[in-house]
Amino acid sequence: xxxxxxxxxxxxxxxxxxxxxxxxxxxxxxxxxxxxxxxxxxxxxxxxxxxxxxxxxxxxxxxxxxxxxxxxxxxxxxxxxxxxxxxxxxxxxxxxxxxxxxxxxxxxxxxxxxxxxxxxxxxxxxxxxxxxxxxxxxxxxxxxxxxxxxxxxxxxxxxxxxxxxxxx
Length: 168
What we know:
This protein is mainly β. The protein has one domain (3-166): Competence, DNA-entry nuclease inhibitor, ComJ (Substrate Binding Domain Of DNAk, Chain A, domain 1, Sandwich). It is 4% helix and 51% strand. The protein is built from one helix and 14 strands; from the N terminus they run E-E-E-E-H-E-E-E-E-E-E-E-E-E-E. It has one helix at 42-47; strands spanning 3-5, 13-21, 25-30, 38-39, 49-52, 55-59, 64-73, 85-93, 98-102, 107-111, 115-127, 130-138, 146-149, 165-166. The strands form three sheets. A six-stranded mixed β-sheet has the order 1-10-9-3-6-5. It has a six-stranded mixed β-sheet with strand order 2-7-12-11-8-13, with no helix packed on it. The radius of gyration is 14 Å and the shape is globular. Residues 2-12 have low confidence and may be disordered.
């Protein structure tokens, strides 16, 4: 699995990760987390994410090849131009800073500075034969769950379900 060090990056594209996405989900979790993927309930599917402490899975627009730009910054800032779906969740990077960005079939290991982050997933749709995603790790103490942009596949109508179980 490739390893990338993002611990010294400030709001520039830190890295681009290419993943093949299965089951419409991309996940972020610490390296070595037992049962890292989340069990999706119907409400998780309709809101576009499944979250539990140390693990988050975002519902992607499609399966297949994806290009994921990963950023670190001090503040999340405004949404990127052309975003189709955007979700924010709290995320804690463990003391060793080691994370995985993964689909069911493959993963990439990253190193970030340990601490509390607001993790934003921005989805842009297809460019050629690749879906585009941006993950922004904003080093903020803000602890919120938010659907910032909803497309026709997700809903903001119900209260957000901010607890998930490990898929086992």
